[in-house]
């Protein structure tokens, strides 16, 4: 029997978010200036979403010590600025290490709904 993990937004509430509402929650957080969102699953995995409202870094980690894996956009050129973390730090990432905001939303929605990357997703293991 396949059991789907439940996911909660770390600094929100303990109420699980479904794939049907996670995008609304992310958009609301972005609109209020919260560009970094961490979700934790019932099995202890973490899903990070950091955006500058145009592109996003999407990372999936198995546990606290795991370097994780992140979505990529091979061949994308440039450097994205304005990825503001919750501690106020402003990061920059190579465009090839981020994806469009639309793709990031699709990835997060799929991971929250199925616990895995979409079959057509491009991602790298950060080990």
Structure keywords:
two-stranded antiparallel ribbon, 32% strand, 9 strands, 127 residues, seven-stranded antiparallel β-sheet, alpha+beta, single chain, 2 helices
Please outline what is shown here.
The protein is an alpha+beta fold. The protein is 19% helix and 32% strand.
Describe this structure in words.
By secondary structure, this protein is an alpha+beta fold. The protein is 19% helix and 32% strand. Strands 1, 2, 3, 4, 5, 8 and 9 form a seven-stranded antiparallel beta sheet that branches. A two-stranded antiparallel ribbon has the order 6-7. A hairpin with a 4-residue loop joins strand 2 and strand 3. The chain is globular. The termini are far apart. The relative contact order is 0.20.
Which H/E pattern describes the elements? EHEEEEEEEHE
Gyration radius over CA: 14 Å
The fraction of residues in strands falls at: 25-35%
Largest sheet, in brief, is:
7 strands, antiparallel
Total DSSP helices: 2
Spans of at least 5 consecutive residues whose pLDDT stays below 50 are none
Helix content, binned percent: 10-25%
Find the count of extended strands (DSSP E, 2+ residues).
Answer: 9
Our measurement of the CA-to-CA distance between the termini, rounded to an integer number of angstroms, reads 31 Å
> Helix/strand-derived class?
alpha+beta
The coarse silhouette is: globular
Mean pLDDT: 93
